[in-house]
## 1
Amino acid sequence: MDGIRATACFPTQNSSYLFLYGELCREEGPAVVAESSAPALGEPMDIMTALQLVLKKSLAHDGLARGLHEGAKAVEKHAAQLCVLAEDCDQPDYVKLVRALCADHNVSLITVPNAKTLGEWAGLCKIDSEGKARKVVGCSCVVVKDYGEESEGLHIVQEYVKSH
């Protein structure tokens, strides 16, 4: 990989390069995984960290529906596996609609405290050269249609959904 370190590298269909966390990944070479935000081995992962990892993997596999319109379509088509709703959404009708759709179609619902954080996890931001998110767009609703590959984070999220 020409000495370039990356936190994650995902191949794309339209181009041979993908910038993630401000560093260059090439499709040809193997992915170098370093400096992950996941806890070290043996440490328990909290639900928010696990959810962040699940959303990143789902985004990489084109399995996210972001926003009310896309989310409602995914839920109505019975393609939704999980719905994430921001608690700081100031539109009561929006929250009521998302909760009702999830209840009607038996879709699990998880809430996160901040819409900006959810937007960052859903890929609605630019990543600068230092790997920090810039120009983050808030997102009040994200629906997971495809989890992508299995991971420890996915198992933690599924256990959390079963227990709540």
## 2
Amino acid sequence: MMSDVAKDRTAHSEKKKGSVSPVRCHEFRRRELHGRIKDCLSTVSYMDEPSLRDDASRRTVQMENTYQLGPTKHFPVVIVNHILKDVLTNYLQEEQYEPELCRQMTKTISEVIKAQVKDLMIPRYKLIVIVHIGQLNSQSILIASRCLWNPKSDTFSSYVFRNSSLFALANVYAVYFE
């Protein structure tokens, strides 16, 4: 006859293996309750335990090696330049510089650009979209970025927009994922 501790360990190891259903009944015999020996039936639900939810979220797709060293389709810089121009012009043509509005606009514009570039379905490229918006007030600004990449397959696209009160710089970096 197994002790309660041994039953708990067995049930825990079965649960980890995935052989236990989400709702499982454990029968514990001869449990002491306030000095009395009593038979008890306990129902335990494992649905609320974080370990069961985390296993499902941690599963990743295993992909076969393609032994492909370079892109089959290069990143279309010209098309992305047109996307940058269209999005910045549509969103900022009539806008005046306001710090809070521009903060939200940078997030919105970068998400729109990223979605439109992803719609081109260029395989195996990771995209980084950065948008800067600032006030035009007779000042100068230098914006620089540095990346470690392969010049044969990795590239970028950039566009600068200006109106009467603000400027915007949008960069899309395309890094080939080998």
## 3
Amino acid sequence: MQSVSGIPTCDLADAMTRLGMGTRFVLNASPVSPRVSSSLHSSVYLIGTAHTSRFAVPSSPEPVSPVNAVDSLKPGQVLVIAGAAGAPNAYFGGLLCARAVAIGAAGAVVDGRVRDLNEVCEHESVFPVMSTSPVGSVLGAPTYAKCVQVGGSITLCSETAYPITINEGDIIVGDVDGVVCVPADRAEEVAALAKKIQLQDAAAKVDIVESGFSLVDAFKKHRTV
């Protein structure tokens, strides 16, 4: 995980795209904590290993998981929640956030809604929360969805053109631009290419700003990977 730490999500996404790794971004994910109005919003950076959980509608034949997804978090992990598509409820809120922070978890990524935003944002400096939903919810989960899986492999954004499979232990990175998932066994490879991309883009920017290069000429000169 150390190899990718500090690298922006855009560079990691570009690296994984160029490596032909398929969809490795969480579609529409953005920070709900820190809020846009917070001084911490633009510099938010989330990194940790995934602790996965999946919800289903109450009518699903799948049994409720005997393991609580939040209570089973370990320090440094990121809670990753795959919500039940179309459900109106939130999957993460104030009490869950307080418990996760007490454990020492790194943050949360929610494919669904978040509620209790004022309470969640009380922890914005230590626990970033990313969500795929542009709106929150006043509703808790029990009536509208049930947690049927904790750990293992889950799929986020499953009803979109860009579903992403996330495995327990994958590396989750989030910032103001979005969220990506780096498979742990390819972290070194992804990080190495991402750092090359960073250097090349920095050099291209210098030529554009200081030497009047066009985008076409700057890309031709510097983007060699």
